[in-house]
Prior knowledge:
5-stranded antiparallel sheet; single chain; 5-stranded mixed sheet; alpha+beta
Amino acid sequence: MEGDFNLKVISPNIGAKSIADNGGITTGTDLVEINLFLFVRIVKARDLLGHYDLNNFDPYVEVKVGRFKGTTLCFRSCSDREWNQVFALEKGQIQNPETTLEIFVKDNALRYDEYVGRISFAVSDIPTRFPTDSALAPQWYGLEDQMGNRCRGELMISSWVGSQADEAFPDSWHLHLSAASIGICNMANTRSQIYLMPRIWCLRVNLIQAQGLVLEDRTERCQIFIQASLGNFTLTSKLAKNNNGNPIWNENLFFAVAEPFDQHLVLSVVQGTLGSHKRLGMCRFPVKNADKIVDGSLPPTKTIVVRGNGEFAGRLSMGLSLDGGYHIFDEDPKCSSDMNPTAKILWRPSIGVFEMGILNATGLPAMKLRDRTDAYCVAKYGSKWVRTRTVINSLSPKWNEQYSWDVYDPCTFITISVFDNSQLHEEDIAAGAIDTRIGKVRILLSELETNRIYSYSYPLVELQPSGLKKMGEIQLAFRFCCPDMINLCKVYTLPTLPAQHFANPLYPIHGLRRQTIMLISSKMSRTEPPLRREVIQYMLDSREIMWSRRRGRADFERITILVSGLVATYTQFDSICKWKNPVSTFIISLVLSILIVHPQHLLPMMFSCLILHVLQQLKKKPKKLSHIDLQLSHVHTASVDELEEEFDPIPSKFGDNIMRNRYDRLRSAAGKYVTRMGDFATRGERLQSLLSWQDPIATMLIMSLCLITGIVTLTVPFQAIVSVWLFYLLRHPILRSPFPTLYENWVSRMPSKLDSMI
């Protein structure tokens, strides 16, 4: 079973070379398999005659190739209309070379699609257009009736055979099987699209103080606070003493705001407590009037009049600024695709271009009734999102679309996800259906060798409450082109975040990230076709991480692996000291003797050993890029109950008995970790107690030992002391005692704070 989740190297039929001579993009389709498409452009019609009269004529055009068809929009009461729509059909789906392209003009005035006229061409006679050619000029064609005779009306069209590189491809409507009934108004949801995320700024509200507030209760126990509201977000300041109507806060509140700044910040002055309070007054401030700051300086102080019920209620001194020196995280900071600040003048220069061809997917599960899946792919890097076209009714969709992104930092991730489109049928839209996620893949750019093409088949894996499930595979071809290696190496010496994050740290990051995700979802769900809210939330990992016993075991194993190197080093040194391998002990003793005599060779030797170790690790270099590690993730060892607990929201949806069992299990696991933490703390406190006079005899002894050691180190050469100490460690087992050392006996007798705990 585990072999199905492995990363597989593939050899797709793509036209790219291993290294681009210019260090950039070679062509727009060199990382995808070239597919030929039949394009049909319907421009406009003239002199059409309806079956009834010109004032009751609703024309539209239907394009049909074998079993595949598509229709234009239908215009009411118009005989001369421009559609300017392009239809496309992959030529490989046309199995019969003698297939005919048929273009019908129909009248929908009485809602039963009456025949007006048609044009037909043999597909084999349609010319092929090369990407370097200019656009094919459309021509007027006369319509024929059902008997093949010339009838009134003409249609301006053009048809050609091209590839994905054709400029008409992104906006084309793909023909689908006649059985796949998709509403004409919903065809826009099947197109490929590129989205640019709105720029997110940090709105800093610096609350200083209020002056001359009109208070009903002037007692000291009555406190004042500020409620700041921006759109759907509300933040509350700390409670301040009323100070006879002049409370002081000196506090910053942070909001995430998106361009354009069309919102108003509402500040309410409230008297009381968070549970019981009364609003004294409020003021409004347009966000677009805030000062834009990119250098971290403080904004000028503004004094705004606060009014309650239309009357004067006091003044509020505050600073309001749009800080462009921060990077407002939309993704998980550990898997971010962008580290640039908001203000574009502070961006670092681009170091290269990342290109990716989204080839196809295989083995997708049926997400709808009748074994149906309408899959599309979404990829995000930085502020640029791309969405492929939706392949209708296919469990092995082929996209073969190529995109590119500018790269500013190699230590970033690109995220690719596959979704099932549920916005194609009116009944699904009316029922509020959402686009179901199928799987997600992340690629770390720093693992890629520059200018090398990678072609992999990534498994799409979803961890569900019922267990781990493979949702198919997605095949990708990608490369990272970097024309200047010096600039790339220079980036590694720079801080990951903008300077403003270190000069004036931004807190809390997670609260701003939640605001940012909601802003992006709201803005991009209004595009055409919309990038839906559930898609954005899945791509940005908006779900908060809850307690997970599975992740706890995985993190503990990660720590164990990290510490295992130190443990192995100590074990090796201990075996050398105990002469388990006399030859190794003799060699180490000889090397140490040379270093004592010539200490200037110590550091060069250490760095030489480190270089040798790195060279030895070269043969263990991973041959594939990193991907999910099922063993490290402990997905197969987790029970269904543990996974249900991991996906359980707050508040929990389970009953008392299940929650009691989980709580008991959590107490048992936490008890083990607490015991180990207590043992570590006890040992550290015993070391501290040597100098704390908690045990007077032990402290007097350690002082005497320090005095004697200081006199010895003052009179005896340092090299002699080091020699004696090293040879004492490397003494032969014959000279060793089976009992604990003096140091261990001493420390084990020391007191600790555990003695004072109940």
